[in-house]
Amino acid sequence: MNLPKNLPRHIAIIMDGNGRWAAQRKLSRIKGHEKGAQTVRTIVRTCARIGVKELTLYAFSRENWKRPRLEILFLMSLLKKYLVKERAELMKNNIIFKTIGRIDELPAGVRKEIQENIRLTARHTGLTLRLALNYGSRTEIVDAARRLATEVKKNNLKINQISEKKFARCLYDPSMSDPDLLIRTGGNMRVSNFLLWQISYAELWVTPTLWPDFKPEDLSRAIRDYAQRERRFGGL
């Protein structure tokens, strides 16, 4: 993989297209999700190998609860299996595992495996893999505002002391750096309520390639395009 020196430190990905991939092949949506999980393994392994520091994947949004009940049950089962199956990969590749979202609303079996992966990888020093689960950015911002309001109510914080930095510390993962590069597969030109606060200055890269077909070569193309852009952060 021929990559530039200025890699993005943090890549965030909206993994879109599992259902369309399956429909194109006259397969069930479940098959699309299974193939998408295989792509996750490949891309996580690639990011760990090339030296990306953080990878945040939009795995299950709060809006996804609106899908058919059987599909949701399958997704939760697939997630649980993924968390267990990929444990060896996390350990082998020195990957730190984290999540963002309202994790307490997920099934107990899924929460148990999440906590185990977090515990086992807490002392790792490589790539931070962060799964956004039961996640919505507007919900995250509301939850952060509630935490700040609670601190003000307890007289631990004055209103005029609230700053962007203090607000960011109330988000789901205060240790998360802002994404440098946001990738969306599947061709849709929207950010779908994903990391709205954090992607204020992220470079966007959208590909028509559906997530199950997304390869390390596609990731390389996105990174090379990112490296050619001039990031001004509002300056000259």
What keyword list fits this structure?
Undecaprenyl pyrophosphate synthetase, six-stranded parallel β-sheet, globular, 236 residues, alpha/beta
Describe the SSE topology.
Elements: E1 10-14, H1 18-24, H2 29-50, E2 54-61, H3 69-85, H4 87-92, E3 96-100, H5 108-121, E4 128-135, H6 137-153, H7 164-168, E5 181-184, E6 203-206, H8 216-227
Parallel strand pairs: 1-2, 1-5, 2-4, 3-4, 5-6
Helix pairs in contact: 1-2, 2-3, 3-5
Describe this structure in words.
The protein is α/β, with parallel strands linked by helices and 236 residues long. The protein has one domain (10-135, 178-227): Undecaprenyl pyrophosphate synthetase (3-Layer(aba) Sandwich), CATH 3.40.1180.10. It is 42% helix and 14% strand. It has eight helices and six strands; from the N terminus they run βααβααβαβααββα. A six-stranded parallel sheet has the order 3-4-2-1-5-6, sandwiched between helices. Strand 3, helix 5 and strand 4 (128-135) form a beta-alpha-beta unit. The model has no long low-confidence stretch (mean pLDDT 96).
* Biggest β-sheet strands, sense, barrel: 6 strands, parallel
Which architecture would the CATH scheme give at its second level? 3-Layer(aba) Sandwich
What's the mean pLDDT score? 96
Oligomeric state of this protein: single chain
Number of domains: 1
Helix content: 40-55%
**Order of strands across the main sheet:** 3-4-2-1-5-6
